[in-house]
UniProtKB/TrEMBL annotation:
This is BRCT domain-containing protein. Residues 517-561, 595-633 are annotated as: Disordered. Residues 5-102, 103-193, 340-412, 638-723, 807-859 form the BRCT domain. Residues 544-553 have a biased composition (Polar residues). One of its GO terms (biological process) is DNA double-strand break attachment to nuclear envelope. One of its GO terms (cellular component) is nucleus. Keywords: Signal. The keyword Repressor does not apply. Residues 1-28 form the signal peptide. It holds the Pfam family RTT107_BRCT_5. InterPro entries: BRCT_dom, BRCT_dom_sf, CellCycle_DNARepair_Reg.
Length: 864
């Protein structure tokens, strides 16, 4: 690292820091001292929390979720992650901005790739794509290398990485290709050498359904209930800071009850916010639909407009996020998206929150969502091209696409063409549910359709809002995987002389932001970085940098051009490669027919004279002969979860055959955690499956019912097979059917808000107890030797309702007993009643579906 006395890396830079979960106050203070030491200046935010954009040259933020991000993008102010500072110091000069943008649309922003045994042309294409999407290229393998692109492990680069145990991943070039086709970064696991899954003969096997981390709190535009804040402590009211200094208006179209309205008002005012009924005074406007004079006025005046789901997300996470970041955080169109009204869409291979999200998104777009698939369905949205529904879609000529089609249609407020390759691309051994929820709403398209003309007498704020949107759109990439991304300009000495384009921009920023345009710069002055106007269809105008030579830029441009030229051929090859796996060898008449078809399609799309309208495309589709439809698969009438079923033990083939028989009868065996109608068990058992599905109110029937279905190939009434286990019911002191009825009334909220801790070293692990507790609405936390105090200390005077209990699941294991005193002290300081209980307390409470406590469950009594 350079000597601070002889180096001034940041001498022309004025920084400000945006605090977030990813950039804490302590980290920001440390970085502040560093940049000042190396010649930079730091400007603090104003009292109202806003950034003085007219004074800074760089914004250090590890997220784009801050209110002035659009303003910064309009001014081409660089927004970079905190590691840009350390990398700049390591190099002795300012690092490239592109590689350190926090914008998640730059999918390779933290990738440093080094190519091994890759042909020269392919290497140029990969490097060009990676650099265009925010990554870096390196000739040598170093500790900063994150990925090695190789065809085998025989290359010296791979051997060095293995010998030195570097943390970089050795991937096949197919990974980069698939990421670039989708415009999303997918998991590298199926592409990792030496045992890459995509090279194995069985590509159609099951793939684990991933969790949908980007959908948290954004699966519905109108949630059924308000979730519990993530950083709240049991027994303590969360202190919200996200509303501080903000005026919030709730629209009447929300149609919320007075009780919920009062709760929301208390949370907002308690967090330093203020309620208002004047749309011109508010900072945030919360409504359900994209219509009405208040919505239009709020949008024109630059107010932050979101829906109830977005408001709940702020309350839950206590951190600001743009309502445009997640599709269902913004008000929905009352009449849907044009073109979707007569569409019938179903979903396959998505699970959990992703499936709920897609269902709500399809309905919000104006289409009809169907749980089952019939011949009258128009589209199938699938995360993989391998399932019963996918086979049926091929036979019935139903359009099969991934979720990017519905997301981008909704984001751009118009139905997207199915001919776009990324909508029909399904990487092998990948479930695309892992990249769901990453699409941003297109604010320019929303503005053009839902509030286009502006008020009769435009205010200064409405003018400013419109010009910011225009500048952001002009500065962003117009197409490609990084569509919508704005990369700022470096502050460098060579920009001391203002060019014509710089003067043009300075004039615009003066009008929009009120920033005075500098007549002439001195070497020691720091002002708003200038930019060159972005030219559509041409190269991106980027700050010259000595770290990238003209030859490397030329290589990148050639590589990107080559990728676009090869795209049709790549798509054709991938399509036929899949056909070869499924349907035998490639060749003969089918190959010739397909090639001829592809050439006809290309000519029709490339010829201006042949460019038809949507009506023409629909007519040609209607004239196309359809395949003979096979008898439809019977609709799923019952979904069941099995536990303790012994018929299939150690016989996988029998299980597969029996599952198919049941499916033919309209009975689908689903995995635990999915919605089900019946829970099938041989007797009353306290397994995770049994207790979780009991908590949902599922009807519990005997295994004899499934046996009867399989043996007779009929479906007898399950009511005649309700599970009866008198011995177990007597043993546990309950009536099973009564417990089911109570569970339906409890609706999964038996333990709502009850804090339950569990010793980390408990027998059978904590995961089982967590699943059971959370299925009933409890707040579940693991308690270990190093666990900090998570119950906020309070005095009896501060509590207005007596002492609430807090539970710790434990046994008499000596290691667990050591934690009892620490737990009791923590509870007492929080003015809560500590109860160290045996795990049987939780199991019995859930089995009975009654929240009650008996001292016999205290560990000191239970194990004696």
């Amino acid at each position: 690292m350079a000597d601070p006395e002889s180096s001034a890396v940041f001498s022309l830079c004025v920084f400000t820091f945006v605090l977030s979960r990813a950039l804490t106050e302590a980290a920001a203070k440390e970085l502040t001292q560093t940049v000042i030491r190396y010649g930079g200046q730091v400007v603090e935010p104003k009292r109202d929390g806003t950034i003085p954009l007219d004074q800074v040259t760089h914004i250090i933020s590890n997220t784009i979720d801050f209110p002035q991000y659009n303003d910064a993008a309009a001014m081409m102010l660089p927004v970079v992650k905190s590691n840009w500072v350390t990398m700049s110091l390591a190099r002795g000069k300012q690092a490239q901005i592109r590689h350190f943008t926090p914008d998640p649309r730059m999918i390779f922003s933290d990738v440093a790739v080094s190519c091994a045994d890759i042909p020269s042309n392919d290497k140029n294409a990969i490097v060009g794509a990676v650099m265009a999407m925010g990554g870096m290229d390196s000739d040598n393998v170093t500790r900063t290398t994150t990925h090695i692109c190789a065809l085998s492990l025989d290359h010296p680069k791979c051997k060095i990485a293995i010998e030195k145990r570097l943390k970089c991943k050795i991937v096949l070039p197919h990974w980069f290709d698939d990421c670039f086709k989708l415009g999303k970064r997918i998991d590298e696991k199926p592409y990792l050498l030496p045992d890459a899954e995509i090279l194995k003969p069985d590509l159609e096997g099951p793939v684990e359904v991933p969790s949908s981390q980007h959908l948290q709190g954004a699966t519905s535009a109108r949630p059924d209930y308000m979730p519990i804040p993530t950083d709240s402590s049991p027994g303590a009211r969360p202190t919200l800071t996200v509303f501080a200094g903000k005026k919030i208006m709730l629209s009447t179209d929300l149609a919320i009850r007075n009780r919920l309205l009062k709760i929301l008002e208390e949370l907002i005012t308690g967090g330093g916010g203020e309620m208002t009924e004047d749309v011109e005074e508010c900072d945030w406007f919360i409504c359900q639909y994209r219509d009405g004079p208040q919505y239009i006025l709020a949008s024109h005046n630059g107010k932050t407009v979101g829906n109830l789901s977005w408001l709940y997300h702020l309350i839950t996470h206590n951190e600001w996020t743009s309502p445009l970041r997640r599709l269902l955080h913004y008000p929905i169109p009352r009449d849907g998206i044009p073109g979707f009204k007569d569409k019938r869409i179903t979903v396959s291979n998505y699970g959990g929150e992703a499936r709920i999200y897609l269902e709500n998104l399809i309905i919000a777009a104006g289409a009809t969502f169907t749980k089952t698939m019939k011949a009258d369905n128009t589209h199938l949205i699938t995360a993989r091209d391998n399932s019963e529904k996918c086979e049926a879609a091929r036979d019935w000529n139903i359009e099969m696409v991934n979720h990017l089609w519905i997301e981008e249609s909704y984001a751009k407020c118009e139905m997207q063409s199915l001919t776009v390759p990324k909508y029909t691309h399904f990487p092998p051994r990948t479930n695309l549910g892992e990249v769901i929820g990453q699409t941003f709403l297109d604010e320019m398209k929303v503005a053009a359709i839902y509030y286009p003309d502006g008020p009769e007498k435009p205010t200064a704020s409405s003018k400013r809002k419109r010009k910011i949107l225009n500048l952001v759109d002009e500065n962003s990439f117009s197409e490609g995987p990084a569509e919508g991304v704005v990369i700022g300009r470096q502050a460098r000495k060579e920009f001391d002389v203002m060019k014509d384009s710089d003067a043009d921009y300075a004039e615009k920023t003066t009008e929009v932001f009120g920033v005075p345009a500098p007549a002439k710069r001195r070497a020691t002055e720091v002002s708003t970085p200038a930019r060159t106007r972005h030219v559509r269809g041409g190269k991106e105008n980027e700050t010259p940098d000595t770290s990238i030579t003209s030859s490397s830029r030329s290589a990148k441009d050639k590589a990107l051009h080559r990728l676009s030229d090869l795209a049709p051929d790549i798509a054709l090859y991938e399509k036929e490669k899949k056909r070869g796996v499924n349907n035998g060898h490639w060749g003969g008449k089918r190959a010739a027919d397909l090639i001829e078809k592809e050439h006809l399609n290309r000519r029709s799309h490339s010829s201006p004279g042949n460019a038809g309208t949507e009506e023409d495309e629909q007519t040609s589709t209607e004239k196309r002969p359809t395949k003979k439809t096979r008898p439809s698969l019977k609709e799923v009438e019952m979904r069941v979860v099995l536990t303790g079923f012994k018929r299939w033990v150690s016989d996988k083939h029998k299980e597969d055959a029996d599952r198919k028989k049941l499916r033919d009868l309209g009975i689908q065996v689903v995995a635990d955690g999915q919605p089900c109608d019946y829970l099938v068990a041989p007797q009353l058992v306290r397994t995770v499956k049994f207790l979780r599905n009991l908590s949902k109110g599922a009807t519990i029937v005997s295994s004899a019912w499934i046996e009867e279905c399989l043996d007779t190939k009929t479906v007898p009434d399950p009511k005649g097979y309700l599970l009866k286990d008198r011995d177990s019911e007597k043993k546990f002191g309950l009536n099973l059917q009564a417990s089911v009825e109570k569970a339906r009334k409890n609706n999964g909220k038996l333990l709502w808000g009850v804090p339950i801790y569990c010793n980390a070293g408990i027998k059978n692990g904590t995961d089982s107890y967590k699943a059971i507790a959370e299925a009933n609405g409890a707040i579940f936390m693991v308690y270990a030797a190093r666990s900090g105090t998570t119950i906020k200390p309070t005095s009896p005077e501060e509590d207005d309702g007596g002492r609430d209990p807090v539970y710790l699941l434990s046994t008499t294991n000596p290691e667990e007993k050591k934690l009892w005193k620490k737990f009791n002290d923590m509870a007492e300081k929080g003015n809560m009643e500590p109860r160290v209980v045996a795990p049987d307390w939780l199991l019995d409470v859930v089995m009975r579906q009654e929240l009650r406590f008996d001292k016999k469950y205290l560990v000191s009594n239970f194990f004696n």
